């Protein structure tokens, strides 16, 4: 069984909704997550940043494409896959993708104060969050 991962990050673009040749909807998103530290002068330095692709299928695809926008902070939990591909110049690349995710917006009220660390508990299944974010919006 592939590992389950939780990503706390921001959408780098609006979701893309498309349909397979069989007519099944799929919503693709790209999430950026970074690790930073506070410097002595009060500013922040980004240490590392990763980009993860997220795919939502069938019943979850269309509502997610309507609910999420570029810049939204999201929590995504799902199975992580690594895929290799060939770049335009003939080189090899690797991407990470979360399939069959549970995804929810992080409401502004639940965001930590500047510089504070936030930890989120997630179940090891695709059932949802142990402690869901307080929001009127449904998780997808």
From TrEMBL:
<dbReference type="InterPro" id="IPR000424">
    <property type="entry name" value="Primosome_PriB/ssb"/>
</dbReference>
<keyword id="KW-0238">DNA-binding</keyword>
<dbReference type="GO" id="GO:0009295">
    <property type="term" value="C:nucleoid"/>
</dbReference>
<protein>
    <submittedName>
        <fullName>Single-stranded DNA-binding protein</fullName>
    </submittedName>
</protein>
<feature type="compositionally biased region" description="Low complexity">
    <location>
        <begin position="109"/>
        <end position="123"/>
    </location>
</feature>
<dbReference type="GO" id="GO:0006260">
    <property type="term" value="P:DNA replication"/>
</dbReference>
<dbReference type="InterPro" id="IPR011344">
    <property type="entry name" value="ssDNA-bd"/>
</dbReference>
<dbReference type="GO" id="GO:0003697">
    <property type="term" value="F:single-stranded DNA binding"/>
</dbReference>
<feature type="region of interest" description="Disordered">
    <location>
        <begin position="109"/>
        <end position="140"/>
    </location>
</feature>
<dbReference type="Pfam" id="PF00436">
    <property type="entry name" value="SSB"/>
</dbReference>
<dbReference type="InterPro" id="IPR012340">
    <property type="entry name" value="NA-bd_OB-fold"/>
</dbReference>
């Amino acid at each position: 069984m592939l590992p389950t991962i939780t990503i706390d990050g921001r959408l780098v673009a609006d979701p893309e909704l498309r349909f397979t040749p069989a007519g099944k909807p799929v919503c693709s998103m790209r999430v950026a997550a970074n690790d930073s530290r506070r410097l002595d002068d009060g500013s922040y330095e980004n240490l590392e940043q990763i980009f993860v692709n997220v795919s939502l299928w069938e019943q979850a695809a269309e509502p997610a494409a309507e609910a999420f926008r570029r810049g939204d902070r999201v929590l995504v939990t799902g199975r992580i896959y690594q895929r290799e591909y060939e770049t335009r110049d003939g080189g090899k690349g690797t991407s990470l993708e979360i399939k069959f995710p549970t995804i929810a917006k992080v409401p502004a009220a639940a965001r930590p104060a500047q510089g504070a660390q936030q930890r989120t508990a997630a179940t090891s299944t695709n059932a949802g969050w142990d402690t869901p974010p307080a929001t009127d919006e449904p998780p997808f």
